[in-house]
Amino acid sequence: QVQLVESGGGLVQAGHSLRLSCVVSGGTFSDYGMGWFRQAPGKERESVATITWGGSTTYADSVKGRFIIRRDNDKKTISLQMNNLKPDDTAVYYCALIGVPWIWGQGTQVTVSS
Asked: What is the mean predicted confidence (pLDDT) over 48-73?
């Protein structure tokens, strides 16, 4: 059974950085795209960044130039380096394995104070 576990969330001031990690256990990691998504209170879940099995990336316009998604197929992990954080980045961040079906982690809270 495939499981995803996120870590690295926390409370930071605006302008600071955080790095989220997601470890995948079980299953074949390298065959799948992965992504980071977030959900703020009262809002729908939105895509933040995705990375294909080959390493191609996409980013939401709101995080381009500030966030970097990476994957390590040997360690079965993905990360999200978040720089110059803004209060609007406050949300629960989820990693996902983009397969059939999608598999989600439990989420990690990121809070950015102004």
From this structure: 97
